[in-house]
Amino acid sequence: MIHNLARDVQAFTANVFLATGDTTALIDAGANFDVVARIRDHVDSLDRLYLTHTHPDHVEKVPAVKEAFDVETWGFDPGSEYVDNAVADGEIVPIGDDDYEALHTPGHKPDHLCFYARSTGVCFAGDLVFANGSFGRTDLEGGDRETLIESIDRLRDTVDDELTALYVGHGPTITERPGDDLELAARAARTR
């Protein structure tokens, strides 16, 4: 089961997803709310904390989560103060009851990862794409529009027609025809 712990938070934060199952995992830690209390509403322990990328709205609460649950983090950039363990492009990682392929998808930020489970068609997309064809901004440090377009295309090629849900870094989860939103984002990113 996947819960968005930031669903009704009014402060600025990224979505924070808790996936329960064989490997209880948190995807991103958010900012500006008590994520530890919300985790404890569902589980007593965490096995892993994955980071889609290290922008402040996704990692501010990493220290609190690590302290409360004695959990290590996994992300793309082992040089980041927030990343304990490197996740390589193409590496398979356990999240909940499924195995997810880590996809290095820079453009919004150089260390950006998406996580995709082929068995279920579920993707944690971070800030690569959002609902209704929106996509991650590229005007922040390390952002690059052409690289972002390449990353969106890579995700489109990877998920094919098997995509069932996009859990995105901001806004609603996309469960109704998520491939359409991904296609719209690919077109919109190419429009100047």
Can you describe this structure?
This protein is of the alpha/beta class and 192 residues long. It has one domain: Metallo-beta-lactamase, Chain A (4-Layer Sandwich), CATH 3.60.15. Helices cover 24% and strands 22% of the residues. It has five helices and eleven strands; from the N terminus they run βββαβααββββββαβα. It has helices spanning 35-40, 56-59, 62-69, 145-159, 178-190; strands at residues 2-4, 17-19, 25-27, 48-50, 73-75, 85-86, 92-95, 98-104, 113-117, 122-126, 165-168. The protein has a six-stranded mixed beta sheet with strand order 1-2-3-4-5-6, with no helix packed on it. A five-stranded mixed beta sheet has the order 7-8-9-10-11. Helix 4 packs antiparallel against helix 5. The longest helix is centred in the last third of the chain and has 15 residues, at 145-159. It is globular. The model has no long low-confidence stretch (mean pLDDT 96).
Number of strands: 11
The overall pLDDT average reads 96
- Give the biggest beta sheet: 6 strands, mixed
Distance between the termini: 38 Å
Number of domains: 1
Number of helical segments with 4 or more residues:
5
What low-confidence regions span 5 or more consecutive residues with pLDDT below 50?
none
Please give the share of residues in helix. 10-25%
CATH homologous superfamily designation:
Ribonuclease Z/Hydroxyacylglutathione hydrolase-like
The gyration radius over C-alpha positions equals 15 Å
Summarize the helix and strand pattern as letters. Answer: EEEHEHHEEEEEEHEH
What's the arrangement of strands in the largest beta sheet?
1-2-3-4-5-6
Q: Structural class of the helices, strands and pairings?
A: alpha/beta
